[in-house]
Amino acid sequence: xxxxxxxxxxxxxxxxxxxxxxxxxxxxxxxxxxxxxxxxxxxxxxxxxxxxxxxxxxxxxxxxxxxxxxxxxxxxxxxxxxxxxxxxxxxxxxxxxxxxxxxxxxxxxxxxxxxxxxxxxxxxxxxxxxxxxxxxxxxxxxxxxxxxxxxxxxxxxxxxxxxxxxxxxxxxxxxxxxxxxxxxxxxxxxxxxxxxxxxxxxxxxxxxxxxxxxxxxxxxxxxxxxxxxxxxxxxxxxxxxxxxxxxxxxxxxxxxxxxxxxxxxxxxxxxxxxxxxxxxxxxxxxxxxxxxxxxxxxxxxxxxxxxxxxxxxxxxxxxxxxxxxxxxxxxxxxxxxxxxxxxxxxxxxxxxxxxxxxxxxxxxxxxxxxxxxxxxxxxxxxxxxxxxxxxxxxxxxxxxxxxxxxxxxxxxxxxxxxxxxxxxxxxxxxxxxxxxxxxxxxxxxxxxxxxxxxxxxxxxxxxxxxxxxxxxxxxxxxxxx
Length: 481
Fold this sequence. Notes:
- This protein is of the alpha+beta class.
- The chain folds into four domains: 10-173, no CATH class; 213-294, no CATH class; 299-381, no CATH class; 386-478, no CATH class.
- 26% of the residues lie in helices and 30% in strands.
């Protein structure tokens, strides 16, 4: 590896190009930039008019929605064309010239204060840095720490193109910009909020009954039981997000707490529809009323508390169409039970060898059975391998912003059929399988078959309608008509 001590290393950039004199980079060239303010950053040159080689209109791209307009730039120096490997492999080197050295004037700019991830040093979030890569090249980027693991990456272009931390030998910060300044202010605000919330105050009118949220839930529960004798706090808290009492800006509030995706910090959204404890209790009653109304255990467990009764009903319903379904297939997927959770009976399920059950929050026995039926259908299709396929021809089809990518009919080893539909847009996509039920094949004509089939896979939802499928003789033959 390199023998130079990065702690004492200085990089001297010489012979900058004057942007105001129309000394322009090549398209796509990544450059160190001196702004008219005297600050330093970096970016990839993208001219506004690619055909006009003399136009200075354009921007330097630093990342997604992160650019520097050419009007802000005074000078630039390429980062792309240098390999420092030879110099970095020599002991005792502490000064490396980048470009032609100028002895006079202000053409020379030096950067020092390099740090290394090897010493467990890392930049501050959103800090834009000059980088010396482990292959000896120069680069730059904005630091983004990975959320759930060690390390991070320097973003340098759109679509999160980045240099991973393990590719970087040493780094030093460039100038503070608006994005980094905003991040600093956000961090300072978090620190101020933390200080304020060390000893929060409580409005006596708002927290008349103390700062235990369950006290307020129980008072709202008393009102609910006037309508629904089965109501419990557990049922009330199925209405999410649940309300909590949390400090905000140095005061206790009734709030709903979510997570900031950016850094996993808590976001407290305060209740603002009243100013007294009794007003909040009234609100809590209204907020949870519908959830409690649809949690009637007599409706939910109308067939008793033996889970096998529900599972056998679901199995018989699915078996009518999915004739090959058997218990061995089901053993590979979900397991179900009825258990007491926080004092209330609940339908629960877990997948294969998972250690813990999760609650199936069904409102009724019928709804739970429907959910189990869908799980059984999925399990059956997974076990029935395709033996032949046919893809209808289609042109560009837009499905409410998604493009139809694939539409394939499959004959299964059982002799049944399914269709698989895939659609997507520029950033995401999805696929879904539909079993073509025996009811469809009871149709005496191809026309009648399509009417029944399109009830399962509607043309206006999945791309191909009757006018597209009816003339397809190969599909008609494939499906046995």
